[in-house]
Amino acid sequence: MIKIIILLIAGLFFANDYTNNFNSNNISIPSSSPLPTITPTNKPIVTPTTIGWLVYPNAVIVSQNSDKVFSKSEDKIETITEYYEKVFDKNGSKNKSFIRTNTNENILNKLSGVIKGKTLTVEIKKDSGSSTVYINIIY
Per the count of CB atoms within 10 A, which of 45, 59, 81, 121 is most buried? Predict the structure, then answer.
């Protein structure tokens, strides 16, 4: 009987020693602290491999991929069109085409040209009675 009691005491001692060593070997134990939250943004991350540099400054991106961006803005369509005309001029586009149409206040402006060896097409659209201007960029 004494051997059983000694074995039980020894077992408790080694079990406690094992638990202490386990916790001291840099093993992280999850805490109940809240994790940081990430807040999404409507502005693109601009890197040399994206076309984020072509997004109108006051636009909200609706969708995008590697060569297309669809956005919208509440700025005047004339202001947005002038902005993109300057983008073509500042980037040395020699072959360019600017078409402005207005039918019953339904406005569609299409700008196209070559920048850095690639064709850039910008369609700027505003429907009659709407203050929202939609911008479609393909590069």
Answer: 59
**DSSP-assigned letters across all residues of 116-133:** TTEEEEEEEEE-TT---E
Asked, for residue 20, whether it belongs to a domain, the answer is no
Residue 45's nearest CA partner among 61, 58, 24 is 61
Identity of the amino acid at 22: F
Amino acid (1-letter code) at residue 118: K
Give CA separation, 26 vs 15, 31, 33, 75, in Å. 19, 15, 19, 56
Q: What is the count of structural domains for the chain?
A: 1
Instruction: Indicate whether 78 pLDDT > 80.
Output: yes
pLDDT category of residue 18 using cuts at 50, 70 and 90: very low
Considering the domain boundaries, does residue 22 fall inside one? Answer: no
